[in-house]
Amino acid sequence: xxxxxxxxxxxxxxxxxxxxxxxxxxxxxxxxxxxxxxxxxxxxxxxxxxxxxxxxxxxxxxxxxxxxxxxxxxxxxxxxxxxxxxxxxxxxxxxxxxxxxxxxxxxxxxxxxxxxxxxxxxxxx
Length: 125
Known about the structure:
mainly alpha, 70% helix, elongated
């Protein structure tokens, strides 16, 4: 690949700031370990702040927000199902899965890849 092709390929994707904010949108969900509903509040704030000036970061923020809403619904269902003990088995699966997918999404966003979670109920359009 020539130098000219390399320069053109670099300008097609999101710039470094957009990639970084996209990564932050996914990692902001880890705030749920510190603050109740922080997993939803973090991506929501980043999406709202960056939706007008950074399309890639806004897209990733919305994707992270939708995933965290889906995870919260799954956790609520697990808590209800804990009455019959199956929820106690499913809760760690949901937690570990959410953590793994969040880390993968953050890495992909930092590389400029528009990540879509494989299990996601897209409520926010």
